[in-house]
Structures are given as C-alpha cells and as structure tokens.
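tool_call predict_complex ligand=ME8
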Amino acid sequence: MSEQCHKAYITTPIYYVNDIPHIGHAYTTIIADTLAIYSRMAGLETFFLTGTDEHGQKIEEAAKKRGKSPQEYADEISGRFKALWDEFGITYDKFIRTTDPEHKKGVQAAFLKMVEKGDIYKDVYRGHYCISCEAFFTETQLVDGEFCPECGKPTSVVEEESYFFRLSKYQEPLLQWYREHEKCILPKTRRNEVMRFVEGGLEDLSITRTSFDWGVKLPEEMNDPKHVMYVWLDALMNYLTALGYGGDEKLMDFWPARVHLIGKDILRFHAVYWPAFLMSLDLPLPHHVAAHGWWTRNGEKMSKSKGNVINPKEVADAYGLENFRYFMLREVPFGGDGDFSQKALIDRINSDLGNDLGNLLNRLIGMSGKYSAGKISSEKVEEHYTEELAEVHASMEKLEPLLFDMQLHRYLEELWKPLSIANKAIDTYQPWVMMKDGREEQALALLGLIANILAKVAVMLHPVMPRTTEKIAKALGFEIDNAAYVKLVKEGALLDPFTIEKIPPLFPRIEEVRMQEFTPGAPEAEATENKPEKKKEKASEPVEGLITIDQFFETQLKVGTIVEAEEVPKSKKLLLLQVDLGEEKPRQIIAGIKEWYGPTDLVDTQVCVVANLKPAKLMGMLSEGMILAAKDEDGLALIRPEKPKKAGTPIG
Ligand code: ME8
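tool_result ok
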C-alpha cells in the first residue's frame, strides 16, 4: 500500500461455508479491518470487502450430508460469518456472497471476455482433484500417489471434458510483474517462493467442471449447459464483481485492490492464477497480495477437520474483543505461524496494555487532578522536553510505512516506544518532587508531554482498538478523527489544551485463565470422513496427545474444604456445595455425586477443585468450579488430599 494513493480497496478471502468461523478467519478479518479503519482515518476513500464462498463440490457434499439444499446450507453458514463480524463491529463496506445474482453475472462476463481474448479452449481434463482444497494436482505432486499435498486428504481421479485457461501464456508476464514490483507479494519471502514456483513452469488450468452442479453456469452464449465454473475462478472474481464488474460498474474506480489479505494456504491462487486472470481481462493488478501465517494449536493448523478450532467469540467474551485484536496483531510477526495460548494473551493484556498503557493514563489522570485541576497545557513542553519529543516523533514517523508493509507486530512494537519514553520520563523526573521543590513549570510541562504522547498513541492504536482508544481520547478531552491524525501524527504537532476526565481503569488485571482449555474433541463427522489413514495414525502418536507443563498449569487445581452441602431440589444426581478455597467467600459448586454421597458425609471434608473453570449454570444455579472424582464400575470416589491442607492450597 502506498501513501500517495487516495483510494484503498481492502479485501479478505471469502470464506467457505463448510466451516464455522474460527480464530484463523477472525485473524484475517481483524487485520483487514485494522487497515480499513486506518485508511479511513488517514483520509483515503476506503472500500473494505469480505464475504462467503458458497459454490463447489465441497459445499455441495457438505449440504447433502446434512440433508439440506446447498443454498439452504450456504444461507445458514454465511449468516453465521456475517453475524459474527457484525457482533465484532467489523467495518466492512460490503459482504459479498458468491450466490448473489450480480456476482454470477459478473463471473459469466469475465468468462466471455477471456474467450474473446483467446485464452480459453475446450479439452479433456485427466488428473487428480482434491475436493477439500478444490484444487487440481498432477500425479507427481501427490503424496504416496494418492493424497493431496496441501491438506493430506485422498484425492479423486477426474477425467472429464473441461474448458481450460491458458495459464502457460502468462508465465513470463507474471514473472515480470513479480520482478518489477518488489512488494506485490508480502512478506517478500513469499514472493521468492511464488517466483520459484512459476519459473518451474505453468500448465493450463482447468476452469470448468461437468461432474457436479453447484456452481455458476457458463454464459448462455457458450451454449454448453453441462459445465459449471471452477470454484476458484468463481471465487477470485468476487474481488471484481463486488465493485460491479460486468454490471453496474460505478465502484470499479476502487480497482486495483490495495491489498488482498489472505492466509498462506491460498497464496498460489492469489499470486499466480488471479493476476493471470486479471491480465486476461486487461485489468491492472493488485498493489499487494499479503499472506499471513497460520494460527496453530500444539503446532497443527487450526481447522474444523482437525477438531482443534478455537471460537473467536469465546476468546472475545472471556478477554475482551479489543484486547484479543491487539494480541493477535502484536503476538505473531505477520507471515509467521503462531500457537494460540491463553497465557500469552493474558501476559499481553496485563503487561503491554495494563502496565504500559493503562497505568500511564491512570497516572496522568491522578497527577493532573492533583496538580492542575484536570487542565493540562502543552505550551512549555517543547522547551523542557525537547529530547523526549524528538524521540517520540522519530517513532511516530516510522509507523505508517510499517503498517503499509503489513509489519503489524513491528508497528505495535514501535508504537509502544513513546509509551516507554513517557513512563521513563515520569520515573526519571518525578513530578511529585518537582512540585515540591519549586519546579512546578517543569512538572506541569511533563504532564503536557505525557498527555500528548497518550493522544498520539491513541490515534495510531485506534485502528487496532477502536473503542478503547475512543475512551482514552475522551479521558484526554479530544476526538480521534482525520484532523487529529493530521495534527498529531502527520504534522507532529501538539494538542493544546487538554481537559482531563477521570475514567475507570481500561485494563483491569487478569489473574486467571478464563476459558476452558481446548480439549481435542471429535471433529465433526463430515470433516473426518475423508482423512487419510496416514493422518489418523499421526493423530494418535503419543506425542500428539501430550501437553506441556505450561498447558498443565493453565488448569488451576486447589484444595477446597466443603463448608456446606445440600440437595438440589428435584434433582436425583446433584448436590449443592459451598467450598472454601481460601478466597473471600466460599465457591458454590454443583456436583453430580448425590448417588454416592449425602450432604452430611461431605461437610468439613476436603476435596480437589478445578478453580479456574468458566462458571456454568446447572438447573438454573451457578456452579463456580468442579470437584475431582474417579468413577469405575464400583461407583464414584472423591479425590482428596492425603493429609489436611489449608483451603486454597494449589495442587500441582
Ligand atoms: O480458502 N490460521 O476459504 P477458507 C490463520 N474460499 N488463518 C486461517 C486459518 C488458520 N488456522 N484457517 C483459515 C478459502 N484461515 C477460499 C478463499 S478467496 C477468493 C477464496 C483464514 O474458508 C485465512 O485467511 O478455507 C485463509 O486464507 C482463509 O481463512 C481460508 O478460508
């Protein structure tokens, strides 16, 4: 993305409707949202597109398994993606669905244009097809002569009449594009990878199928009704049809895209096929295709078929949506893979957000209330804090290029430098001492420095944490908008004056893990069926089932003393316990142990408790923990410490 352009068209992949949204999807969408919010704030005319990819054999089969029509099924899952993005406040301008009539019309128009260009011919396709990846492979590319090299699932042999796109014709022009545009594919290492692939030779691409039905039909002019479009041609075209290609083209001046954000799994489609299709359509190529890495669980890519997905809504509910946004962007270098860990998320919230940012704001609010009745002037800041200001500006200047180069983790790292300057300045100059020893002007100017640093950071953090930064701005008495961005960031100027308002702490400290740790559950039937034996074996290898010591300690086990026990009315199984864990008040725990223990057996005895389980409701009552027990054919026995221990003693 270059700063000089005045339009910013930003896209996410359109997500397949065979998978419910997980944190991988949320990651791409949150990055795209961050870029879109930034672009709008920077005064660029912005169009942010997301949506769902609804055609193809994979979706047809998934719908059939659920006894639904593909359309019904697509409506349902597409709705879930849209609902989640709406709940997350994602600022998309359009949510496209490939089943939209305008989209289908646009894809057909593109097909005709490619025919006109002489880029399409009819032949017979013989080869292997992976339904899960919706991709063709040659014999030599397969693993063990049968399995997909991308996802490991078995491929099927296909021999059918097909239209082909002359991809081979575009080999040289593609190489030229990569060579001439250093940043066309980001990160740059990916560009090298794509170049090697294309240099290896490109075969023409089969772009229609006849063996199933769920897709965009060929244009009537082709007079060949048994063909439907290859799902990737259909899907990639969404980036154009969303702007009206082949119909009402009034948004087409947003083309070319500033950035197509994608995961590294779909790089070949976006960095090879897509630019070749665009060349065939005589359209300019995107400025950037930016491929991020994978979120993994214990080193494995997260996906529904592996049964190891993390629900982004659960994370957002447990830790706060904007904290989650910050974590995702800060934790993993763009392009690299990242293993999702709650501990890392909690550390980021407590340390970066709580200590570095939140405490700084609290200190400013406190000091300004005490020393200057909430009024802060910037008049003397330059005079007293020239060096600090210069350092702050040097950091601010580095930010935009980092963002536009997708170096989001470095962007946030750099953005934290001014915070560190501010925190250090307070510790070094000790304004409370200056207030006492006659250096009031310097002390008040220091508050001006801090307020300006916080204002600048709030503006540049706004795209990542929109609502939180609005609260910071409110506390400082200004609004985050293009004018503030120009003044504080572009011009490097100071705001003056500030009227400080007290607000509650933004990042209360998190002491406990708030989500149930993921336990490898049975993946949904539809997804497991196709797994090759090889993969299944791998999943049961002992190492796969092991956890690290850190993972173990994410479960907090404590000794508890049962102080009260009673029957749950109308329940044959449940007892209501009050268990002392050495906290302010006993925890209420509902345990399914009534068949083996009566209330009087339990009072004043000790048990082992999972203390950081998300509270759940049972029979309308809150249960705030779980008691450990072992059950075999002889019944159930509670697990108890061998000797009495103080209530709340950690186990581990
Ligand atoms: O590929 N980590 O759709 P899709 C990070 N319909 N990102 C992940 C991820 C993970 N574990 N899993 C998924 C398709 N993603 C096509 C796209 S575009 C014209 C057609 C994200 O539902 C990442 O952005 O399989 C990846 O590229 C995308 O979801 C794949 O989504």
